[in-house]
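Checked the freezer inventory, then went back to the computational side. Two predictions to log before the end of the day. The first one is the construct we discussed on Monday; recording sequence and tokens without edits.
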Amino acid sequence: MTVGTGLRSTPASRQRRRGSRRARLVGGLAGVLVTVVVAGLVLWLSHAFGGGAKRTADKVPVSWQRPVVTADGLTQQSGVKITQVVVTGDGGLVDLRFKVVDPDRANALHDPSTPPAVVDEESGLVVHELFMNHSHTGPYKAGVTYYLVFNNPGNWVHHGSRVSVMLGNAQVEHVVVP
């Protein structure tokens, strides 16, 4: 008998309490496991089926298509040389950098009928919305490296992606994003 409480503690009652604690612990862990599995399944399905975006190669509007050139051909056609295409901002941004070789040809990049864009070659998704609508205005200068930062919705363009870069009146295909 326990002194002061008037209650009697038996080995059987202690065993029941221990058993109910184990049941609560096992139930709680099972609930957490089910929640993690369901959340993982939802994320996987949303990515696998595009999260509402179609995974087709016909996302580039016909009016945006440009002659395909090599990297050297881009320099001759648009007056710029691509220096890097990287994913930044924890995957939410694509940073495109280019060096101006011929400022007169590079000024064609300002033409609204040929907006700059990056196309993910696997999904066909066109990344063209500039982060905070920032773009260069005014004449380009020879030897200067400029940048365009695009929003990367759904992190479609990622490390290891192959992309097509559209600048001016030309497009360079199979650019690997490091």
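The second is the one RB wanted added to the comparison set:
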Amino acid sequence: MTNKLRLFVSEASMKRSLQFILLAAPLLFACPLCAQSIPEIPYDSAPNLLKLPNDIYLGEALGVATNSKGHIFVYTRTGSVNVTTGTNRVFVRTGSRLFEFDQNGKYVREIGQGLYGFVQAHAVKVDPQDNIWVVDEGSSMVIKFDPEGRVLMTMGRKPEAVNNPARVEAPPAAGSGAGVPGDNFNGPSDVAWDSAGNIYVADGSRNSRIAKFDKNGVFSKSWGVRGTAPGQFNVPHSIVVDAKDNIYVADRGNKRIQVFDTNGSPKTEYTNVGTPWELCITSGPHQYIYSSDSNTGDFDPATIYKMELNGTVLGKFGAGGKQLKEFGTIHQMDCRKDNELYVAEILNWRVQKLILHPDKVETSRTSAKR
């Protein structure tokens, strides 16, 4: 073989190797630890957490959040299903209710009883100023309360009655979510804020977009359409923002977590945590993300993953069922503290407080090998 021929073969091999690396790189970044053996994190559940009055019951627990005092807020689908008719609208009364408990689970009060926008609960969040925000899928509204429980801001609008010919129909499910104007929500899922107070709404059930507003609720922009490409969504179900203003979206239908900057530009995605239903992010100098892998109408899967912000999975825990430490479709989580979680369950009509023991992970793994 001549020197020129050897050089040609060598260059061709290098090109093929380089092409393989370039093609494989997105997969490696999207799923950095697919082959990793994920340790199980030991945990406990606090029994008899919420102490409700004798005449009040929880229905489907859709939302749970805590404030700076440790008080627990639960947004639940409960109450009357009766409707009354007005001149051109149908009014659903107390289809959802918002309860507050103290840090020990003692009942404190109900907020917004009979409120016009409480139709079909979906999420509750508490912002850094201890304002309480609810996301109502049925009324297609996001409602902000001050810490005393008074309404400060409303976003979106309750739909007109079905028989009203003036009602504006929502865009089709496969339509362009990015073209939806302002706060014309259609089944919103979640809300979050960046360090400047900008508001991000996951308009997820039908519009498949993220809508951004300034701190006063003035519309800024939106991004996302129905699809599978980066920046597209199939039910963006949960949204959180870290201390560096990275935005994490649980793209449930696409079985991934997408990460964006504040302008909506995609940065990366994580595809190694099953079907992300709900995300929560811890406070403090070292933040972690928890992601729940749930399933409607069944008890499995029922796994919660603990992750670094870069997508590295540190551990997992959870099992489907009805007993303590078992889950029935986790719909929302709160993780203000690193190893203390509150989880709201649809199927079990309850909220659990979970205490994690990450210091026992290595011990558990060692014992399992014996």
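For RB: Confidence is low (pLDDT under 50) at residues 4-9, 17-30, 163-175, 363-370. The first strand starts at residue 43 and ends at 45. Let me know if you want it refolded.
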